[in-house]
Amino acid sequence: MRVGNQARTDDERVLRLASDLDPIDLRLSPQEGYLLSRIDGHTSWETLRQIGGLPPGEIDRCIEAWVARGWLEYAGKGDIQTGADPAGDGSCADGATAPPPVSPTQGIEVDASLDLSEGLQKELLELAADLQRPYHAVLGMPRDADVKAIKKAYFAKSKRFHPDRYFRRNTGPFAALLELCFKRLLEAYELLSDPATRAEVEKSQETLCEEPTLKKLSRAEASRRLRRRLGHFSGGRPGNADRKRKAKAFFEAGVTAYAAERWLEAAGSVRLAIAFDPGNQAFRERFVEVQRRAHEERAKQLVKLGEAALDMRHYGDALGYFEEAFQFRPYDGELAMRAAKIAWQSGASLKKAKEFALAACEVDPEVGAYHRVLGQIYKAANLAANARRELEAAVRIDSKDKEARAELRSL
To answer: Residues near 3 by Cβ (< 8 Å), separated by ≥ 6?
Structure first.
């Protein structure tokens, strides 16, 4: 925040677009675009506060960020000290200016002594190094991927990167990367899989974290391109005040529901807040927290439905419920094992039974019963060598497992 003589100096300054900037490529919200269109090499900073279409404090932060990023320059003589770009992308995010962010992977290297495979460590480093990519890219999907593909991609990645899956393991500095990556994956999945938010989020995502294309343009051409770009915005002028008010109301409703532990309701409200104001970072950060609780609640509901289906001997339905519940709780070995037993004992699918039993063993490798069931499934599939390996592991972990010993003798 500028005070005293510094503020008075800024009031008198006149700003213009940098000579090498193509504004058509800048990543801006409609409000920011309108403010930038008023910067013409003649209008003072103080006048911009009055006509820029944003609160004065936000206008100050935008200008400071854009000057720091090199998008703007002063038309007068001299220069002033400005803060660094607070959002790292030239936007006018709330809060004090700060130095450029440090990469979350800085100083972290693959460590064979950790309880994470070296392959997984490399995957984490690669993913965490570029989390600010568009959501679909974070999930490894094309921009036009449908909801089914988005869901499949998310659940595949969440099984590998969910922090709770590595509880009590020595993950060293990768613990923070697991949390960071999972939050971004969860945010990407939830916002792309909901029709109410996807269109808004994708428009907003296009404005994030890409460097502007720098070209030599005349200032007249730059101004013309900016006016053309503003034509893509609704009315070309800031008219989002009502949308922001609605977003705030939805967010407050979500906070109230969250406090009352109505997780699903809270997640729905915060999702709507993002739909109306997709650029609000505070909403997005809180959404991840709320959505994790909602996933837990949804998993509980699915387990209840699965148990009711089992009581009715509707094994196909029960398997579907437990399978989906495990997707929401990919760190829960017991859920995976229940799905495996249903698929195996009902004769629904030995392939699915094997997949879920393998997942249970991956999540909790020191549970002998999981290896015993996997061995029994391999035995049912006439894979004797695999069955022996898993049954021997079961006995090694739990020497009192009589069922595993009996299965071994029968091979």
So the answer is: none
Of residues 197 and 186, more confidence is placed in: 186
Could you report the per-residue pLDDT of 273-328, keeping only the tens digit for each? 877 777 677 787 777 778 888 888 889 999 999 999 999 999 999 999 999 999 88
Predicted pLDDT at 100: 47
The CATH topology of domain 241-331 is 1.25.40
| The domain over range 337-411 is classified in CATH as 3.40.190.10 | no
What ranges in 99-173 are assigned the alpha helix state H? 118-128, 135-138, 147-161
Averaged over 27-47, what is the pLDDT? 75
For the purposes of burial, counting CB atoms within 10 Å of the CB of 373, is it exposed (0-12), middle (13-18) or buried (19 or more)? buried
d(CA 36, CA 22) in angstroms, rounded, equals 12
Q: Which residues contact 122 (CB under 8 A, 6 or more apart)?
A: 110
State the average pLDDT over residues 36-41: 76
Q: Please give the span between the terminal C-alpha atoms of the chain, in angstroms, as a whole number.
A: 76
Residue range(s) in the chain whose domain bears CATH number 1.25.40.10: 337-411
Q: Which amino acid is at 194?
A: D
For the 118-205 domain, the top CATH level (class) is mainly alpha
Q: Report the C-alpha gap between 196 and 233 in whole angstroms.
A: 19
How far apart CA 299 and CA 321 sit, in angstroms, is 9
